[in-house]
Specification:
The protein is an alpha/beta fold and 319 residues long. The protein contains nine helices and twelve strands. It has a single domain, classed as 3-Layer(aba) Sandwich (Rossmann fold), CATH 3.40.50.1820. The strands form two sheets. The chain has a nine-stranded mixed β-sheet with strand order 2-5-6-8-7-9-10-11-12, with helices on both faces. Strands 1-3-4 form a three-stranded antiparallel β-sheet, with no helix packed on it.
């Protein structure tokens, strides 16, 4: 048996190498699927000119199928995973599709782009889940099997439907110092990955959780022509962001936790109603009534979201 180790260099720093394994048996050979790979791409942020990195996940089979172009997903993490984009980048592995693909070894057929939001002073605000986090709690990919998942968030909120807030005129459209500040960097990352890797640009998707859910709505509003579908998870969209999304008929699947005490369910309805009033009918809204803010675990660990994303492509929106 021969193993040919393929390690990508240049601006990428290889975390997991792939191997193409050829086995000869009675003058026949088979090529086994190359294994998934996690890379770190270097870039200079337009925000502060700092040198940072972001993750690029290559799915199983990427190297053993050289003629295939792969769907790409840009994922935006939550507030607790901010960092310097260097030695703190691994906090991005805590949850979401990258956690599922790399740590939990879920076979996701996407190239996943996963950057890290700048701290923007949040480490000076006395936020316990940032101040008390530890690199020792970052899940590690195991050689065999997968690590135990973190315990679900505790909640004392009853399972009940709260009245929706219909007037959002006095509500800020975004949380402070969020992903909207990285708009230029995020689009540059998307362009870079599409140029460097075998990407099916027709199947380009955007998803994020919590702070990343808000960022998903914002980026989709500013660049609706770049994405075939978006999935904001436990982060609502303000009505003021909806017109470009409706105009481009961008497919939307919004998720919320019915017992979410961090991002209250009452704020989710007005933006979705605005989409419908603008004539947009390709919108889904799923509320996990029994779940709190960490409804994202059920959502990203399942299959429904990924299958739904893959059913959409940009060329369909142009018809």
């Amino acid at each position: 048996m021969k193993k040919l180790m393929l390690c990508l260099m240049m601006t990428s720093f290889l975390i997991g190498c792939t191997s193409n394994v050829k086995q000869a048996d009675n003058n026949t050979s088979t090529v086994q699927q190359s294994q998934e790979q996690l890379l770190r791409e270097a870039y200079q942020s337009s925000i502060d000119q700092s040198k940072r990195e972001y993750f690029v996940y290559l799915p199983k089979g990427y190297h053993s199928k050289p003629d295939k172009k792969w769907p790409v997903m840009l994922f935006l993490h939550g507030n607790g995973e901010r960092g310097n984009g260097q030695d703190e980048l691994d906090f991005v592995l805590m949850q979401g599709p990258l956690h599922e693909a790399w740590i939990q070894k879920k076979d996701l057929p996407f190239i996943i782009i996963s950057p890290q939001l700048h701290m923007f002073g949040f480490d000076k605000k006395g936020i316990s889940y940032i101040d008390n986090r530890s690199k020792g709690n970052i899940p590690k990919r195991l050689d065999q099997g997968v690590p135990k998942r973190s315990a679900a968030f505790e909640t004392n909120t009853d399972i009940q439907r709260m009245a929706s807030l219909t007037d959002m005129s006095d509500v800020a459209p975004l949380l402070p110092q969020g992903w909207e500040l990285l708009e230029t960097d995020l689009i540059a990352m998307l362009d870079s990955v599409q140029n460097k890797y075998r990407v099916n640009a027709d199947k380009t998707y955007l998803s994020g959780l919590s702070y990343g859910g808000f960022g998903t709505w914002y980026l989709a509003s500013k660049h609706p022509e770049r994405f075939a579908a978006i999935a904001p998870v436990v982060g609502w969209g303000h009505p003021s962001l909806m017109a470009p999304i409706a105009k481009h008929k961008l497919a939307v699947w919004q998720f919320a936790g019915g017992r979410d005490s961090a991002v209250n369910i009452q704020y989710f309805y007005a933006g979705l109603t605005k989409l419908e009033k603008l004539g947009h009918n390709n919108v889904r809204f799923t509320v996990h009534e029994d779940k709190g803010h960490d409804a994202w675990t059920r959502i990203y660990s399942g299959d429904d979201l990924y299958q739904w994303l893959l059913s959409h492509q940009l060329s369909d929106l142009l018809k």
